[in-house]
Amino acid sequence: MKQLLQHPRERTPQAVTLPDPVPQPGCVLIRTRASLISSGTERASVQMARASLMEKARRRPDLVRQVLHKARTEGLVPTWQKARHRLDQPLVPGYSCAGTVVGLGEGVSGFRIGDRVAAAGQNLASHAELTNVPVNLVCRLPESVGFDEGAFVAVGAIALHGVRTGSPLIGETVAVVGLGLLGQLTARILSAQGCRVIGIDPSDSRRRAAESNVHLMTAAPENAIHVVQQATGGLGADAVIVCAASRSENILAEAAALARDRACITVVGAVPVVAPREVFYRKELQLRVSRSYGPGRYDAAYEQRGVDYPESYVRWTENRNMQAFLQLIADKRVDTSSLITHRFKIEESDSAYGTIESEEQALAVVFEYPPESEPLPVVKRLASGKRGEGRDIIGVGFWGAGAFAGSVLAPLLASRSDVRLVGVASRTPVAADQAMRQHRFAYATCTPERLLEDHDINLLVIATPHHLHAAQAMAALKAGKSVFLEKPMATEPGDLRELAAMMAECGPRLQVGFNRRFSPAATSLDAAFADVRDPKTLVYRVAAGPAPESGWMSDPASGGRIKGEICHFIDTAQYLIGSWPCAVRAEQLGKRDSDGVLITLRFTDGSTATIIYVTDHNRRTPKESLEIFGGGVSAAIDDYRRWIVHKGGRTIERKTRQDKGHRAQFDALIARLRTEDAVDGDPLAAICATDVTFAVHESLRTGATVEVSPWL
Question: Which residues neighbour 200 within 8 Å (Cβ) at sequence distance 6 or greater?
Fold first, then answer.
């Protein structure tokens, strides 16, 4: 399929050939017939994508602070690798489209193949011939609404939610500041509900577009106060809706000057929310900020997992706003066709984006797509994949191409002379294609079955969302592949038992990504305690920080932080102690909603380990520190940069750049595969560490100590 991507070094988005996507769980697969360029939004996004590093840093100081914090806690080199990986990712333009349903993912109901639909969502309803969109961001097109009209659905829902947020009443006078596409739609919706509208914009062409299609008055900014005062008999506007995009901090002061006493000012556009207190206080103005399409926006449960809000409690959700806007078009109360100033094919992206940058009169620019295209399940590199054939060459496939796979795992394997990267599969065509280009895989696909059937792949690296790991690892083992499985092994006890049974049946062909046990620091401490037979005491402190608002850490479906990260520290503890955990007790740390946790492990040899996982620490705190004592020996690891051992009358201290064992784990894995077609990494220990995470959850739930049966 064809899709537009904005690469960092390209002037405008370009149409590239990507593998066809397949229906994803909870998603509707749509063959796009029309997609909308929102000129203001996409112009800003394209300019940001091609900005220099310094310019990006100036515009997003919050991200700069995150990078500096990561460099302090994790080291400069890994931070730069991850930042470089992020910076090299292309922008996916577009967020509003319409087309026909060609596939339904697992769990989707309410749609059928062939339905005409409209869809919204950044990185979802993009400029592409085929796109997967979660079900709550898709709605049916009324029979009388064409694809090009339906392509306005996202911008229309934003405008409609802005009007709802401002709550203007029939007969009230509303000033709309900014008559770009968003302002034009806002003015039409207000007019449809019986408001008197005054549109304000410096552009003559935009004011003419508003005047010719809506019964409203318009004004240039310098005349706006006079026009509003004249139209309202000196009272001022009952409401002001700001739809402009501007960096000026004077926008709200200008909006306040238009408003009557006790009016409401609603911010819909991208402007600084800087309200001058004097005028807001004197007029007793209300200030409201409208959040995109409406309730559900930025809620992963609603947008990604399809959990709807009850109508009796939340009448106008994101999706219901989309439906209401399309109905306004169907009822001929809002006209969108007259806003389309240009139409292009997807291959004409240079002309399309050149138009929105150079032509003032460009409002809505629409891409049109053919009703069908040739299937393309696999995209291959023009040149063959890296390195040649040979008995000692390990063919590797990647199932999953997310940030960690792309910034850490794939570069380590790509740098090896005894590895050939064969194929990469991802849920999203963009991620698969980008991984193929960056790391020189031979091909990219969205169909993982292709990897399972590929006889050139000896080792399959699984780095997909956590809750999929167990099932995918079992499929790979069944297909005869050796497997490197990123942690965790499983997020449910039943899945772990099934995977453990298959591992026993298939032999030692699976290694889990518990890399810390391979680090120089951990292996040195393990050697220091090799002759200690007394029980040991271990304390592992992790300064994890608060979980981000989105991503696997905040997603219960992915297992959360205990199953997804604390499993690392459990595995390291049992590796250094050299015994099996037999009992677990856990309690929450910090505030009620904190995900900090204190875990105490008892081992069969009498040892104990305490894992202190804190999230409310000072940001300058190093992430990980470990101390272990026993048999007259004591040792410590400081963030995997420094370790020290006190044994007998000697003290051994080592310092290095941070090394958490990622490279060493692949050294061991590849060496083992080349000699015995098996893997290293103690699979029983990996199973046990995963099982302990379930016991931690149970102890948190019950407040009791939970017994653990060793996996022997």
Answer: 175, 176, 177, 178, 179, 218, 219, 220, 221, 224, 258
Structural tokens at position 280 = 């807001």
Residue whose C-alpha is closest to residue 341's, from 177, 219, 180: 180
CB 690 within 8 A of CB 677: no
Say if residues 472 and 493 touch (Cβ distance below 8 Å): no
Q: Distance between CA atoms of 396 and 409, rounded to whole angstroms?
A: 12
CA distance 465 to 490: 11
Residue 214: both structure tokens together: 């809506």
Q: Does the structure show a pLDDT above 70 at 497?
A: yes
SS3 labels along 367-426: EECCCCCCCCCEEECCCCCCCCCCCCCEEEEEECCCHHHHHHHHHHHHCCCCEEEEEEEC
Task: Give the containing element (helix H, strand E) for 589.
Answer: strand 581-589
- Residue 281: closest CA among 256, 258, 251: 256
* Residue type, position 303, single letter: E
Q: Which residues contact 501 (CB under 8 A, 6 or more apart)?
A: none
Token pair in block for residue 172: 């009230």
Q: With contact defined as beta carbons under 8 Å apart, do 36 and 155 qualify?
A: yes
Q: First-to-last CA distance in the chain?
A: 50
Count helices and strands in the chain by DSSP H and E runs: 25, 31
Q: How far apart are CA 573 and CA 537, in angstroms?
A: 10
Q: What whole-number distance in Å separates Cα of residue 574 and Cα of residue 605?
A: 11
| CA atoms within 13 Å, Cβ hemisphere of 465 | 17
Does the pLDDT value for residue 69 go beyond 70? no
Q: Residue 95: helix, strand or coil by DSSP?
A: coil
Distance of CA 150 to the CA centre of its chain: 26
569-623 pLDDT tens trace: 999 999 999 999 999 999 999 877 678 999 999 999 999 999 999 998 887 888 9
Give one DSSP letter per residue of 233-278, joined into a string: TTS-EEEEEE------TTHHHHHHHHEEEEEEEEE-SS------HH
Looking at residue 60, what is its pLDDT?
Answer: 56
Lowest mean pLDDT across 311-325, 448-462, 588-602, 677-691: 677-691
Q: What is d(CA 466, CA 585) in angstroms, rounded to the nearest whole number?
A: 24
Gyration radius of the chain over CA positions: 29
Rounded distance, CA 170 to CA 209, Å? 24
Which amino acid is present at 85? H
* Long-range own/partner contacts, residues 194-201 (CB < 8 A, 24 or more apart): 194/170, 195/168, 195/169, 195/170, 195/171, 196/171, 196/172, 196/231, 197/173, 198/173, 198/174, 198/224, 198/227, 198/228, 198/231, 198/237, 199/175, 200/175, 200/176, 200/224, 200/258, 201/177, 201/244
Cα gap 63→60, rounded to integer Å: 6
Contact 198, 176 (CB under 8 A): yes
CB atoms within 10 A of CB 53: 10
